[in-house]
């Protein structure tokens, strides 16, 4: 029953069958569907889930709005079968944000809505019981003078908080707030001061009784000025770019703002790229914040996630820290949004409902009327451009906080240099002297596995993936040839599959091989390798990072996992190996990503009192990207890169949407996009350009052929209008068997 344009049937008042419910179905279907309210239950409100009859079956839906009349024949409208929630689970502001996002990204509203909910709530499952086991103070506990309680800090804290909540508090909230409380609770119960109860989940704000947060460092003038200017915007919308060099203390600015937000009784949303990779940030925030944050991340179980979601939605928690999907978590008292590492590609959802959490954070702040702060040492060029035009207020932290000095970067020309383990003599010498001085060395090689290529010296055979246009990576310890694109692998062959020859050789070097080759060069030196292969087991990454921070391994080597926001105070030398291939990659964003990576890795050196230096090995020392980075840092690089983007009419100077198609044959994918192109001609104005179809940079992946059609315009509204006119025609096109297609608005990854 999609709503169709046509004759509007207006109901007479006295014939009214009750309000019409506009329902979004939990499926990738365009449009909303009209239903009548269920018999025998109160009329649902917008934001409540319902079970509805749909195409001969049952589907979960969510009421978007109530209407007086429907464009459908009222006699044919079906009734909602039952309500799934006792009250709305999304508020009007949440619905507005999601509807806006579905519209902007041209996604089905039902798909957008339900991907914003915790997994269990995408089904007909009931909400988790909000009445939970809890504790409350007895009359004796209320009356007792705290001085009579004895010296147990935890008992004091527990009784103190319970005395402020006469109805009691749930156990899990008490634990979240105070840490382990079992022993303290036993002690207090034995004295009759507290008792168990069924506690409704009450709100946890900042209260004076909680353990005092750890004290932070004294802020410098730049940090204080940034906080002052953002505070001045509290209560209304304004977007800020917090552009701070690595080590400049952006986190301290966040902490100051969060405290101020809590003092105003508002909730703060902090969006971070990957919590799993930054346990340190999580710990630091948790130790320093004046209230316990709710942390949403993938390591939580489904029910833990859902409880956290409810706590935020009910306004019981003052701080939510989460990855990109947290941008949709309902927060009724939201007063501040922070996006850390706003340049990070993982803030973009690449599958299903494709959205940018950073861009939606700005939109959400605008809808709610609160400030949003985008923080980075290496801002995305789009964000920098918004700061340059004044759309975002530009706050700079140009100095490192504390005593640390910025590291010096040196380009090391390795043309004609003898290398051992891929390291030039100069770098090896530098490593030796730092290690001898008791310091730590970090080697960055952004390629895991032993070697990216295995080849036969006799006949030239090269190990390739049978399903992708990609080479197989050799993982020697696991004796596998592995495709990093589709996950396919084979056991390492002993002979060449073509000529049965025995002379198989590797080309190139990954972290596994570097690790192996370093050991004889640095005997008696402890080495730690941190990449996806060495951190597969749960908890292993935290353990390795902790050891690395304590300075136990003298050499740290790893992929970009090492680059993200970790502090290694004893690292005084960073060696960057083998970035040259990235300098000439096809994607127009490759130089930006490379510069960001270099700056982030560089930021690991010399974080404490010891000065750091960075050696970047290259065969292209005159490359303009490297030269601009070296001479003027990221800001200089960005200046140059923006000028290049402008000359080439690329984002942020134009706006893109990418239609991708994949099919069992290249011809099918291509011909579908040709049809797309053909039906666009009539609508596309001179200012919206279609480029393609062309094969994707990796044409075959996981056994499917991929092609793409790029839509480009200098004016975003024109692009949006063209897409809105064009997409219904695309959806109506006949589709060959096995063909899939998708639209990506503002694509980040062009592959
Ligand atoms: Zn061979
Ligand atoms: Zn593959």
3D structure, described in words:
The protein has 751 residues and is α/β, with parallel strands linked by helices. The protein has 6 domains: 13-122, GIY-YIG endonuclease; 131-200; 221-397, P-loop containing nucleotide triphosphate hydrolases (Rossmann fold); 408-448 and 510-648, Rossmann fold (3-Layer(aba) Sandwich), CATH 3.40.50; 453-495, no CATH class; 655-745, 2-Layer Sandwich (Alpha-Beta Plaits), CATH 3.30.70.600. It contains 20 helices and 32 strands. The strands form 8 sheets. The chain has a 7-stranded parallel beta sheet, with helices on both faces. The protein has a 6-stranded parallel beta sheet with strand order 16-28-27-19-26-25, sandwiched between helices. The longest helix has 24 residues, at 624-647. Mean pLDDT is 88; it is low at 1-14 and 202-210. The protein binds zinc ion (2 copies). One zinc ion binds at residues 456, 458-459, 461, 496, 498-499, 501.
């Amino acid at each position: 029953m999609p709503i169709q344009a046509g004759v509007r049937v207006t109901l007479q008042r006295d014939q009214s069958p009750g309000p019409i419910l506009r329902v979004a179905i939990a499926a990738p279907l365009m449009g909303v569907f009209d239903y009548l309210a269920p018999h025998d239950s109160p009329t649902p409100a917008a934001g409540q889930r319902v079970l509805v009859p749909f195409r001969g079956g049952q589907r979960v839906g969510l009421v978007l709005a109530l209407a007086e009349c429907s464009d459908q024949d009222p006699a044919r409208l079906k009734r909602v079968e039952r309500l799934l929630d006792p009250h709305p689970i999304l508020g009007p502001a949440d619905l507005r944000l999601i509807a806006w996002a579905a519209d902007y990204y041209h996604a089905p509203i039902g798909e957008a809505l339900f991907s914003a909910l915790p997994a269990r709530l995408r089904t007909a499952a009931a909400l988790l019981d909000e009445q939970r086991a809890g504790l409350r103070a007895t009359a004796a506990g209320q009356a007792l003078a705290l001085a009579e309680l004895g010296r147990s800090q935890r008992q004091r804290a527990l009784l103190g908080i319970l005395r402020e909540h006469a109805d009691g508090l749930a156990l899990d909230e008490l634990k979240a707030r105070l840490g382990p409380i079992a022993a303290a609770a036993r002690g207090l119960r034995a004295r009759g001061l507290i008792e168990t109860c069924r506690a409704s989940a009450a709100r946890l704000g900042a209260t004076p009784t909680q353990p005092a947060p750890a004290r932070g460092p004294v802020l410098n003038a730049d940090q204080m000025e940034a906080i002052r200017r953002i505070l001045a915007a509290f209560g209304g919308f304004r977007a800020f770019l917090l552009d701070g060099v690595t080590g400049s203390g952006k986190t301290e600015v966040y902490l100051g703002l969060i405290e101020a937000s809590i003092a105003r009784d508002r909730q703060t949303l902090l969006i971070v790229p990957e919590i799993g990779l930054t346990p340190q940030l999580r710990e630091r925030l948790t130790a320093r914040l004046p209230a316990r944050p709710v942390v949403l991340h993938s390591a939580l179980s489904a029910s833990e996630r859902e409880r956290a979601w409810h706590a935020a939605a009910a306004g019981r928690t003052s701080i939510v820290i989460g990855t990109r999907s947290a941008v949709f978590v309902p927060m009724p008292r939201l007063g501040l949004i922070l996006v850390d590492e706003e340049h990070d590609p993982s803030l973009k959802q690449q599958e299903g409902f494709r959205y940018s959490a950073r861009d939606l954070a700005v939109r959400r702040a605008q809808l709610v009327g609160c400030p949003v702060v985008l923080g980075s040492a290496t801002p995305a060029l789009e964000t920098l451009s918004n700061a340059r035009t004044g759309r975002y207020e530009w706050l700079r932290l140009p100095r490192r906080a504390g005593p640390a000095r910025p590291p010096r970067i040196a380009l090391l020309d390795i043309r004609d240099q003898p290398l051992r383990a891929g390291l030039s003599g100069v770098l090896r010498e530098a490593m030796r002297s730092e290690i001898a001085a008791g310091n730590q060395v970090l080697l960055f090689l952004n390629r895991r596995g032993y070697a990216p290529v295995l080849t036969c010296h006799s006949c030239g055979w090269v190990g390739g993936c049978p399903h992708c246009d990609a080479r197989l990576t050799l993982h020697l310890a696991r004796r596998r040839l592995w495709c990093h694109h589709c996950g396919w692998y084979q056991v390492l062959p002993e002979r060449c599959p073509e000529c049965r020859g025995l002379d198989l050789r590797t080309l190139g070097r990954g972290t596994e091989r570097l690790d192996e080759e370093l050991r004889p060069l640095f005997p008696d030196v402890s080495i730690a390798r941190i990449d996806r292969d060495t951190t597969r087991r749960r908890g292993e990454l935290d353990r390795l990072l902790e050891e690395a921070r304590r300075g136990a391994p003298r050499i740290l080597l790893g992929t970009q996992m090492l680059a993200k926001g970790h502090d290694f105070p004893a690292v005084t030398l960073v060696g960057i190996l083998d970035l040259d291939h990235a300098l000439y990659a096809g994607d127009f964003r490759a130089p930006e990503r490379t510069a960001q990576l270099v700056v982030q890795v560089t930021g690991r050196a010399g974080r404490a009192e010891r000065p750091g230096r960075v050696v970047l090995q290259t065969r292209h020392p005159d490359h303009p990207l490297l030269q601009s980075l070296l001479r003027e840092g990221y800001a200089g690089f960005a200046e140059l890169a923006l000028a290049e983007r402008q000359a080439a009419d690329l984002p942020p100077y134009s706006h893109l949407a990418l239609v991708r198609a994949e099919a069992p044959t290249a011809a099918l994918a291509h011909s579908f996009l040709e049809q797309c192109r053909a039906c666009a001609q009539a609508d596309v104005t001179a200012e919206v350009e279609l480029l393609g179809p062309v094969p994707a940079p990796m044409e075959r992946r996981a056994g499917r052929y991929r092609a793409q059609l790029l839509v480009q315009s200098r004016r975003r509204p024109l692009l949006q209008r063209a897409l809105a006119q064009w997409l219904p025609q695309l959806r109506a096109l006949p589709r060959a068997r096995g063909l899939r297609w998708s639209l990506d608005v503002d694509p980040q990854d062009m592959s």
